[in-house]
Specification:
Radius of gyration: 28 Å
Shape: globular
Bound molecules: ligand MTE, molybdenum atom
Number of domains: 3
Helix content: 25-40%
Strand order of the largest sheet: 2-1-10-5-6
Distance between the termini: 78 Å
Largest sheet: 5 strands, mixed
Strand content: 15-25%
Structural class: alpha+beta
Length: 511
């Protein structure tokens, strides 16, 4: 009798997978209505990002680059699918086990959603809705797999099961697509962004001097176009912040706490500045550096209005999604172009780069200065508060280290013999680059020609136009000297805890 009642091997996993798919589809739909980051898979991923040891994150960034988030979500879905198949297999034995499995899923999802820094109680709705629909689906389908009353010979209701499974998948697909559409449209925020009229700077910058860009094919352009600008952040789903709802609270060790609206911000004198931003996770020769013309207001001006107390030494800024960043007060107040920026290269900040408002501070790595979607600045002390990356093994302070990179020729390139252009960029923000030298096969250092740099806050292109490449294998190395007189040393340091050092080198083969 018992053996008659057993469904074929594929039925259980199929039932589990379809139930899980409907759960995800429905919760995507609900997340589209509530908040995209309340989709439990995203919340579990966000929690994994926050809980992962620093070494794992570094490995992920190094291995998967800007795809690290997609790889994480794919990994979670694979685990989910395996567990769902197992739940289905249990459910055809006893549907209570399957139900319990889905409830356990729901508990994990709800915990992840509710422990996010920006969580609201309503955020649990997508998880709940998904689990309820998943359980109903599971019970319906499991009922098809063992369809006969006890005591009678049973045949699996194969047709019923397959029709039910197809129905479940259709439901999952349709609700999922609608949900994704709802959350990616964010029509209010993208409309507000498109409608934003950029104010004119009090003292507009002259156009970028022609001499700043050597216009060599394959060399990083002086201004990095927004779509090419690197992206680094912990957000699996981009915060959608409507400028009409945005406020910036400045509080803590200040005489007069303030809360600015976006309109308040635009009333202040507008500053324009060319600033090169770079990431502490950028290894020697790496891609996480870019230069833009930013438009914003003086962060120092806003802080002075609030009245920073003498013994404060840290700005703890927080983003709409709860990420935090610690910036030295003295650096922000020393007269450099530290900005609350709302535009980048002539357009409103792209959402991925922090719309509506982000911080930009020349001379500091992004993790200690460049808070995107910034909504809160607490004036405090380094010995009282810690920012996101500090307990994860990164230095509390992160001044940018003088660096240089060879863009041309590319590592591993095969080149014809003869005159060859070697070119790249070098940066030492707020100090400035004074010299770049190149050497071939550990020969004598030769001075590269420098492009213009409008200020000390940007990177500087360099070129060596007259290398006479001879057949064979060659190693090209570069080092920069900044305006303080410091020359990069060969000493290799990893990216953690406070930025990589060493000379970038490329190997080429000349025919
Ligand atoms: N809200 C938020 N802001 C953030 C981060 C983040 O994870 N969340 N990462 C910082 C880091 S590490 C860097 S290097 C810069 C990168 O800015 P970009 O993505 O605009 O290039 O943003 C900074 N601002
Ligand atoms: Mo970074």
């Amino acid at each position: 009798m018992e053996s008659n009642r057993r469904a074929p091997g594929w039925a259980g996993p199929l039932i589990g997978l379809v139930s899980c798919a409907t759960a995800l589809g429905i919760s995507l739909l609900a997340a589209g209505l509530v908040k995209a980051s309340a989709f439990p898979v995203v919340a579990v991923g966000d929690a994994a990002v926050d809980l992962a040891p620093a070494g794992v994150k570094e490995f992920a960034i190094r291995t998967f680059g800007e795809n690290d988030k997609n790889v994480l979500v794919a990994g979670i879905l694979v685990v989910l699918a395996a567990v769902a198949a197992a739940i289905g297999a249990l459910a055809v034995r006893d549907v209570r086990y399957g139900t319990a499995g889905l409830v356990a899923f729901g508990v994990v999802g709800a915990l992840a959603v509710l422990t996010r820094p920006d969580a609201a109680l309503l955020d649990v709705v997508p998880t709940l809705a998904g689990v309820v629909v998943g359980i109903v689906t599971l019970r319906l389908l499991a009922g098809r797999a063992v369809s006969a009353p006890p005591g009678e010979a049973v045949a699996l209701d194969r047709r019923g099961l397959l029709v039910g499974a197809a129905g479940g998948l259709a439901l999952a697909g349709v609700s999922g697509v609608i949900g994704v559409g709802l959350s990616s449209g964010h029509s209010a925020v993208s409309r507000a962004r498109a409608a934003l009229k950029l104010p004119r700077p009090a003292t507009p910058l002259p156009p970028v001097p022609a001499g700043a860009d050597l216009r060599i094919k394959g060399l990083s352009p002086f201004v990095t176009p927004n779509p090419d600008f690197y992206r680094v952040d912990t957000a699996l789903v981009l915060p959608q912040v409507d400028p009409r709802d945005w406020t910036l609270r400045i509080h803590g060790m200040v005489d007069r706490p303030v809360e600015l609206t976006f309109a308040d911000l635009l009333k202040r004198p507008v500053v324009e500045a060319d600033v090169t931003l770079c990431c502490v996770s950028n290894d020697v020769g790496g891609p996480y550096v870019g230069n833009a013309r930013w438009l914003g207001v003086s962060l120092a001006g806003v802080l002075r209005d609030a009245g920073v107390r003498r013994d404060a030494d840290m700005l703890l800024s927080t983003s709409a999604d709860g990420w935090t960043c610690g910036t030295p007060v003295d650096v922000v107040l020393d007269g450099r172009d530290a900005l609350l920026a709302f535009a980048m290269n002539g357009e409103a900040l792209p959402v991925v780069h922090g719309f509506p408002v982000r911080q930009v501070v020349p001379g500091l790595y992004g993790y200690v200065s460049a808070t995107k979607w910034v909504t809160d600045i607490k004036v405090t002390r380094f010995d009282r508060d810690e920012a996101y990356w500090t307990p994860r093994g990164w230095a509390p302070k992160g001044p940018v280290k003088t660096e240089s990179r060879i863009d041309l020729p590319r590592d591993g390139a095969r080149l014809p013999a003869g005159r060859t252009v070697v070119a790249g960029v070098a940066w030492a923000q707020h100090k400035g680059i004074d010299a770049v030298e190149v050497r071939i096969d550990r020969g004598p250092w030769r001075r590269a020609r420098l492009a213009e740099a409008p200020t000390a806050d940007t990177w500087r292109q360099w070129v060596l136009d007259d290398w006479d490449a001879t057949p064979g294998e060659h190693t090209i190395e570069v080092r920069a000297t900044d305006a303080t007189g410091y020359t990069q040393t060969a000493e290799r340091a990893p990216v953690g805890p406070d930025g990589a050092t060493g000379w970038h080198s490329v190997d080429v083969r000349v025919a």
